[in-house]
Write a structure and sequence with these properties.
- The complex is a heterodimer.
- Chain A has 19 helices and five strands.
- By secondary structure, chain A is α/β, with parallel strands linked by helices.
- In chain A, strands 1, 2, 3, 4 and 5 form a five-stranded mixed sheet that branches.
- Chain B has 13 helices and five strands.
- The radius of gyration of chain B is 27 Å and the shape is globular.
- The longest helix of chain B has 23 residues.
- In chain B, helix 9 runs parallel beside helix 11.
- Chain B has a five-stranded mixed sheet with strand order 1-2-4-3-5, with helices on one face.
- About 5% of the residues of chain B have low confidence.
- Classes of the chains: A alpha/beta, B alpha+beta.
- The interface between A and B is large, with 63 and 51 residues.
Chain lengths: ~425, ~325
Amino acid sequence: MAVTLRRLALPALVLTAVLIPVLKPGTRPVPTESERRLERVQLLRQRLNVAGVRWGALAERDSGALPAMVDARSGRPGVQLRGFGAAAVAPEVNRILDDLWSRLGPVDSAVRVALLIYNDDPYTFRQQVWGGYSGASISLGNGGATCVVLLRGRLQRDGRVGVGKGRLEDALGPCTLLAGFGPPGPTLERWLGTTRYLAAGSTAWLSRSRSFIDGGRGAMPWMAIYDYGSYDDDWPPIQGLMSTGSLAREIAQLLSPPYELGAHGLRCTEGDVAACRRGVLDTTVISEATRGLPPDLTYAWSLLDYPLNWTLGTPRPPGEWWLSDLIRDQGREKFARFWTSSASFEQAFQVAFGEDLGAWTHRWSVRQWENSWFEKYSPSPRLLGATLKPSWPLLALGWSGVALMLTAWVARRRQVT
Amino acid sequence: MSRALVLVPFLAAALAGTAGAQDALAWRDSVIRLTAEVRAVRDSLVAPDSTVVEIERRNGVVLSATPPQKDAAARAFEYFTEQRARWFGAALPSPGGFRLVVQTTTARNIFTRFGDVDRWTGVIVLTGLPDTADSAHAQRAAELEDLGSQLVTGFSELMFPTLGVPTTLWLGDPLPLHMADRDRRYLAMYMVMTSTGKAERGCAEDKLELCAFALGLRVAPSSDLTGAYPPLVRADLFLTALEIGGPEAWSRIVAAHPARPEAALTAASGLTADSLLARWKNRIVALRPVEGPLQPTTALLAAGWVGALLLGTLGASRWR
């Protein structure tokens, strides 16, 4: 009896392992009224947040950016405070501007920059709004450019206006590039416009060494946004395992490749340079998620319309420090040639840097990924699709042979009953 | 370029953007409508539950709960009262009081959640008086077993903004009060003693000015320094300052309106920044393990068991 049980145990285990991925979802309990309401609150809050951010961004653009533009000047921008009272001051902001513009060196006199710090309390409507809008309104024309940075601030009890240093520098990113290199050539102007200057959102090229890894706390090289429902049961790559419940789903997510990078990001990081090019040049993601907004407003994650409905195949844009890293890696002179070129994007890149866009982006993506939080704390294989290497079947056959020989050797001996 | 000419491209862009584009007023209307909707749904989460009753009232705080959660809520309230007195003293999130609504859940253990979803089972309301329209409020979900910790965490998040912008920006994340003191301190010790940046190594070697830089309190003493401790280490220093300063430490920070995090730490602890750093550093160093992870007795024991199992297996074999 015991022998029969043991003989049956192995096939049963194998069968269970095979069947786990194809199990159908069990019947889930019907959500209670309370659960449905909580989910509704979450969804409404997300929509409310987008509405609050867009209200603030558009209102400040319409009513604040115009007067700020009049005072915009070439060289180190002035600071205007709006909605904080006459006594408010922002010494820390002035110090950062002094520092950045001294590092910038000579600037293009046809580029005017202004900084408007606004109070976003009126737009929150007594609800908590995450993010707010911090970006810029950029208009190009007549051989020049005007860049008005719109930055939300908070009035502190000591009468100073506080802003996040990182947020200030990110919002200033496009303006520092314009001031430092002048208006971009037609190719870059189109690319920057349709991506809302997303890849220009860092000033690290002014102050950080070449070895510095940008992107906040170990961010991914390609934009990964976790929106409401992105970890829903319909996450395609591991749908089979989803059916066995949330525990299996979590285990599968921990073990699975970083699908958040998207197929293009994954392939790029693995060495597919065509995927790297596509990731940089694709502009659909941002233009669709910000459809209807005035074209002069630059990117901020809080502006994006949720849910994003991204799939694995949707190309993610590169991180906001992509251009900054390019300057740090290649130097200002080469970048200036790229920035003002009228050739196609890829050709301009090749001519300016002597390297293919895809190849450089691949190196950048690998460096960024290997220093990302995800790789440090949850390393996972960067695989996509069938990846059976020739050595694996050989190895499997070898071990099978060893197992077979061992079994045959054991079976040759006589059992004592 | 004259000022009037400067505006031409902007106005052109503005007009182009306005044609068929979204405008601020439409989004304002959306915000008003959505706010009303959120409020209505949120209120409906508590309002129809007429079974929520007051359980306890202590030091200006009222605890209410649905009857099945009564005992769990009372136990959690004890923990909350003790932790609140320890970290926040008598400080309030806002002069108008506060309101913390917790939806309690079950089915969160590893076995029952397999193939199941969390269940919302009841409501617990913590109200700080005066409960006015201007009170700070928050909503959370918590397992009944974890309720006390969640009440403290929720209250801590309500209190966090009262520290002022410089201190909250410096801390980065809300205080990790959900962690046990011992776990937090050991994790901070691990982070301090194993970080590899130049400044962090210097701090581990007892150079306090480098600790101050790595903690984001002061500027770098030299330009070639790199490294910064993660938020948990800063939080550990901050909580150490609160502990040294006693129950009224938080109120002292709020009253001091600190323009810099260092001033907040000084106000909380009553010590100079250097003295506080030295005391914190000594505590961190004292937590370092004194013995290696593998002791001779453990190694011998493991080898002994391996041998015993091996011999046992060979001896029990029915094969010849």
